[in-house]
Amino acid sequence: MSPTRVLTLTTGILSLTKSDDELAVVVGHELAHAVAGHSREDHLSGKHDKLLLLPWLPAVLPGQALARLAACIDPIFHLPAFVLTSPARAIVYWKLRKSRVQEREADYMGLMLMCEAGYDPAAAITHWVEMDARAQEHFSKLQAKYGRGNVLPVNEWNLTHPHPSTRIAEIQTLIPKVRAMVDHGKHLQQEGRPEIPELAYFSEEAGGRGQGDGAAAAWDHWRSC
């Protein structure tokens, strides 16, 4: 989802969706980013992040040079390398963590959106199992080409998105909650209460996990519709 709220589906992602339910997983996830205002959050925080990072950039290159010396000549250079690069690394890791939080938030909201639209949220498991298999296949090909010692797994804290296996485990626990929330919301609507409570529950749940910003914005947006 672009900052202008234009949703683009590539032929690559379409080739990975084997049913309308799996396509709803992708569309629901991207719509959730828009409803939660993640692009706006990124735009506002990006300026502050650059200001935080800018003073530490001059120390990064010397720090990396010392890290190479530590690897090739003497481990004693590890300490100054760590001191020079750790502030910038901390800021980058914080940004990466925030991105992963937004992805988890969109996964949760996307499941609710697709479930309420009548699609099966269990398709999210099928989708991410396929994505995980593709990632493992690509990783195995790289190891075969360049050698196992030269191609190592990337830790999740270095990624902008949670690992597919992490998403699968989390989605498995979310599906029963999502179905219950949507059913409860439909029951309230039948009783003549027009408000949909799912995002209120989500805001509380997300807030407990440290993910409340986008959820709260989504709830406000939904109430204003």
UniProtKB/TrEMBL annotation:
What cofactor(s) does the depicted protein rely on? Answer: Zn(2+)
Pfam families referenced in this protein's UniProt entry, alphabetically: Peptidase_M48 (PF01435)
Q: Is Iron one of the keywords UniProt gives this record?
A: no
Gene Ontology CC entries for this record: membrane
Keyword tags: Hydrolase, Metal-binding, Metalloprotease, Protease, Zinc
Q: Where is the Peptidase M48 domain?
A: 8-173
Q: Which GO terms describe its biological process?
A: proteolysis involved in protein catabolic process
What does the record say about how the cofactor binds?
A: Binds 1 zinc ion per subunit.
> Which molecular function term from Gene Ontology is one that the record holds?
metal ion binding
**Family membership:** Belongs to the peptidase M48 family.
Task: Please give the name of this protein.
Answer: Peptidase M48 domain-containing protein
Recorded source organism is: Hortaea werneckii
Organism classification: Eukaryota, Fungi, Dikarya, Ascomycota, Pezizomycotina
